[in-house]
Amino acid sequence: MPLGTFDIEGREGPLLAGGTVALGFFDGCHLGHQKILGKCLELGKDKAAVFTFPNHPTTAIPGRSAPPLVTTAHERIEIIRRMGLEVYLREFNREFSSWSAEHFALSILKETLGVRHVVVGHDYRFGHRAAGDVALLAELGAEYGFEVTVIGAVMHHDTEPFVISSTRIRQAVAEGDLMLAHQLMGRPFSVGGTVVQGHQRGRTIGFPTANIEYPDEKVQPPYGVVAVKVLVDGESHFGIANFGLRPTVESEQTRPLLEVHLFDFEQDLYGRSITVDFMAFVRREQKFESFDALKAQIQADVERVSNFFSRR
Question: Quick one: 73 and 144 in the same domain?
Fold first, then answer.
């Protein structure tokens, strides 16, 4: 478990005595979430933390599955920690889902954490069947000795303004609107992973790639070509990526693969961890009649993406 991250199940408190905690799942850690986390840090200073879950709450409901996530648990926790907050975790399981709102406030906020201040978003819900809202949380705070700060909705002001939400970001990514996702999060949609061994077909046509297995739980953009910025050992490199099933070279592939070609980069990346920022969607994945046709299209894509980055 990363430094500054604590599994609180079964631990005796108070673990954050007199501190401030932000409550929520925070998928994507978008601009609305950042306002909540920023207020928590402002109030709690060196005693500021987040209480959240490694798994999406819907996974505890029989017959339900979690929505595709903007950030994996690891990514989400790392973003929060980089903002300067500690992270307290508890698995959202069947037993926990049965807790009443009152029991949650007493057991987690008062006894286990011992906080003096709680920060939540305007639509925060808690307790069995999400029966608790921010008004009830404030009432329980008065009873158990903590204050509650509620952060209002953060709007994206477009032609038709809307509330920034994880759901809206998932939709943007799934539709290939990566620039909108970037705007709503204040950073690009990204995927991190370890470079795995591929068939090295890209190298044979002059475009070697670093291949990453795409996390099953993450929301997927449309299969296709993407302009990317890649972080390798703390340094950023521009490049182009294909996300999909590679229909020209693989007829039986069922799991999508992320293949990244870095511009002006010669190092061996096998086994190394990289982070790929999706900057702009270029075109849909397609099947070509030959490798020569594929190579010609890749060359055109590379030129287009190079021009995209030169204008930024």
Answer: yes
